[in-house]
Specification:
4-stranded antiparallel beta sheet, single chain, two-stranded antiparallel ribbon, alpha+beta
């Protein structure tokens, strides 16, 4: 069994059409379109073939081809956690910097919270220093006036 990943799918493709298109190159064991937690289509999906030869034929045939007006990018799917996979960039993918920024307000790691505590302590010290400096300036003015 072999799985392929199909990237840059058209936004309006259905799972039935996805199966129909990629089923033309061999027997499909499974097909799955990927969505965000909110239900937005991420424009990629996976297709599982019963034989590795069918998957290779599908890659050769569909890579850089078009479905509707979208140019597909098709390659052999790698195992989850494979070290050769490049760092994720999508804000929907855990591990990407965009994901960390978009989820920073709702969930913070211990490191982030300790950084926030250190920053707030620095701000308090600055405010205290500024207040002291302001008081000193006022006292100097009063002493000059007298």
């Amino acid at each position: 069994m072999a799985r392929i990943i199909v990237k840059n799918l058209p936004a309006n493709i259905t799972e039935d059409r996805f199966r129909e298109v990629f089923g033309s190159k061999g027997s499909i064991t499974d097909a799955r379109l990927m969505y965000t937690a909110a239900g937005k289509f991420r424009k990629f999906g996976f297709v599982g073939y019963g034989r590795a030869e069918d998957a290779e034929q599908a890659i050769e045939y569909f890579n850089k081809s078009f479905v509707d007006s979208s140019r597909l990018q098709v390659e052999l799917a790698r195992a989850f956690g494979d070290q050769s996979i490049p760092r994720p960039w999508s804000r929907h993918s855990a591990g990407s910097s965009a994901n960390k920024q978009s989820t920073a307000g709702s969930t913070q790691s211990e490191d982030d919270s300790s950084d926030d505590e250190q920053a707030s302590e620095k701000n308090k010290k600055k405010e205290k220093k500024m207040t002291t400096t302001t008081k000193e300036k006022k006292m100097k003015k009063k002493s000059k006036e007298e």
